[in-house]
Amino acid sequence: MISYQKAKVEEAPDIKKLLYKTWTSAYSDIYSQEAIDAVTSEWHSISLLTKQILNPNVSFIVAKSDEKIIGMCNAEFKPKNKLLYIQRLHVDPKFQNRGIGSTLIKKVMGKFPSLIKLKLEVEKQNLKAFYFYQKHGFKKVGTKNFLVKGVRMPSLIMEKLI
Ligand SMILES: CC(C)(COP(=O)(O)OP(=O)(O)OC[C@H]1O[C@@H](n2cnc3c(N)ncnc32)[C@H](O)[C@@H]1OP(=O)(O)O)[C@@H](O)C(=O)NCCC(=O)NCCS
């Protein structure tokens, strides 16, 4: 049975491990291991994850199976335009296609009932995630290039009105 809970600061190292696993699985055909290591070390640092877990404008949810973290999603609410920006959504490959990603999106939305729009960025070649978001009603509204430690990541900006 899968449970969904607010992430705790002491869980940051296990969340980082999950992110490394899902990143390696999703991006090993697209990026070199050096590039994956560089991006994950910056984007998934313990200090950044801790800051986000503690931020009252961030909804940070973990999915657990037998007390082990097997999925996560965090999203930041921008009150000015009632926008919820999904920063990460990751499910352990062994637990994908069981509705956990879909449930995580619903759970992060629950903290900010006044939201009117969802926004996210997805790597251009990550077609599995792109189709997942499209199926959930997100539409491509633009493109963006991330440059992280010398790694260029072409991405699509997607939005969904609630
Ligand atoms: C994208 C991602 C988060 C989706 O998570 P997931 O848990 O597999 O998503 P879901 O199970 O909710 O939905 C996936 C599929 O399962 C189906 N599904 C949904 N609920 C289901 C259920 N209860 N039982 C069986 N299948 C179900 C969905 O219809 C969907 O089908 P589709 O393949 O036809 O689209 C996951 O693939 C992932 O972690 N990828 C790697 C990281 C990544 O790319 N993240 C996004 C970066 S922006």
Automatic annotation (TrEMBL):
> Entry's InterPro entries?
Acyl_CoA_acyltransferase (IPR016181), Bact_Acetyltransf (IPR050832), GNAT_dom (IPR000182)
- Keyword Transferase included in the entry's annotation: yes
> Which Gene3D superfamilies is this protein grouped with?
3.40.630.30
Cite the PROSITE patterns for this sequence: GNAT (PS51186)
UniProt keyword Lipid biosynthesis, yes or no = no
User: Where would I find the N-acetyltransferase domain in this sequence?
Assistant: 18-162
Q: What highest taxon heads this organism's lineage?
A: Bacteria
Pfam families the record matches: Acetyltransf_1
**A single Gene Ontology molecular function, please?**
acyltransferase activity, transferring groups other than amino-acyl groups
Q: Which UniProt keywords apply?
A: Acyltransferase, Transferase
The name this protein carries in UniProt is N-acetyltransferase domain-containing protein
